[in-house]
Write a structure and sequence with these properties.
With 158 residues, the chain is of the alpha+beta class. It is 47% helix and 11% strand. Strand 3 and strand 4 form a beta hairpin. Helix 1 packs across helix 3, helix 2 runs antiparallel to helix 3 and helix 6 runs parallel beside helix 7. The longest helix is centred in the last third of the chain and has 15 residues.
């Protein structure tokens, strides 16, 4: 979903009675629809609940689970925590970059299929190195498995 639809956001606002004390829940529901928080949606929410744009942006940027940038259908989180790092997660990240055409400056593919994020820890140290795709953990990842994973995800879209 690429464009802002005020009707959907208004339904979420109604669910929470435009209660500014529920702003985080409202933003979570909006992000669930778009996979990020569009600027237009944030301004609309701020106006409807009666807070400033600066305040809503402050909330959106304070919490790491909110994103102000569009993400791909498949968000690949590459763990760079200690356990994953010593088990060569850097080579996995390089393989994912090569397979998707992304890099440390470009995080989402032009077709909107993949986003690569580097995270500090996924809490799966015993399974290191780990890559998480959306909500699915892929343990004991290797560069070859990473390449195969991208191919498998692309095949689903064909």
């Amino acid at each position: 979903m690429d464009h802002f639809d005020s009707k959907q956001v208004d339904e979420i606002l109604a669910k929470y009675n435009c209660d500014k004390s529920r702003i985080i829940s409202i933003m979570q529901d909006v992000q669930e629809i778009y996979n990020y928080l569009p600027k237009e949606a944030l301004c609309h929410i701020a106006e409807k609940v009666g807070i400033s744009n600066a305040k809503i942006y402050g909330v959106a940027t304070f919490y790491g689970n909110f994103s102000l940038e569009a993400k791909g259908k498949y968000v690949l989180k590459v763990c760079r925590g200690t356990a994953c790092h010593v088990r060569k997660s850097a080579t996995i990240l390089d393989a994912l970059y090569a397979a998707t055409g992304l890099n440390e400056d470009k995080h989402t593919t032009d077709d909107g299929l993949f986003t690569i994020e580097i995270v500090s820890c996924l809490g799966a140290c015993g399974l290191a190195p780990v890559v998480m795709v959306n909500e699915t953990v892929h343990p004991q990842m290797t560069p070859d498995k990473a390449k195969a994973l991208i191919e498998e995800l692309r095949a689903k879209e064909a």
